[in-house]
Amino acid sequence: MKLIVGLGNPGAKYAQTKHNIGFITLDEIAYQKGWTFNRSNFESVYSEGLVGTEKVILIKPQTYMNESGRSVRQWLDYYDLTEEDLTVVYDDMDLPVGKIRLRQKGGAGGHNGIKSLIDHLGTKHFNRLRIGVGRPYENQSVVSHVLSPFHKSVHEDVLFSVKKAADAALYWAEGNTYADTMTQFN
After folding, report:
1. Is the pTM value of this prediction over 0.85?
2. Region 63-92: what's the mean pLDDT?
3. Which of 61, 91, 100, 177 could pair with 133 as two cysteines, CB 3.0-4.6 Å apart?
4. Annotated catalytic, 111?
């Protein structure tokens, strides 16, 4: 079994913001697979199905970004899974729009959702799929940047990165190692 967690904030107010690129990517995976987010458990909404022979659960924590780890910990505990069975999809300001980067470990890098995951999981060793959202404009706060929608001029780049991230997550979910997935998609 594999868990793919998209980080974001619940509600229409945040739906198209940069900080919700994890939710947006999970929506793309669900669209490709014909799945729907029609269930809730462990402070999240989720969708599930098979990728090849592997059961995969797509999870959108509804705890708001800063408490995402609380929901993810519950999923891992309930199914007796380890961090190796988890991939977390989230926004990264250090990557330009249109780029993705996969890693198996690391710090929070100032990302409150990742900080929450590290705190609740008790480790920095978990699969990460980062999607570039670029840096704030001059005189723009980080909060204002991540809680605003993408500019229309980068729409194609955003679509490209979301589809590439979805492809990478599905490649991993098919049973490929994360190291191989990184080689294929980084």
Report:
1. yes
2. 97
3. 91
4. no
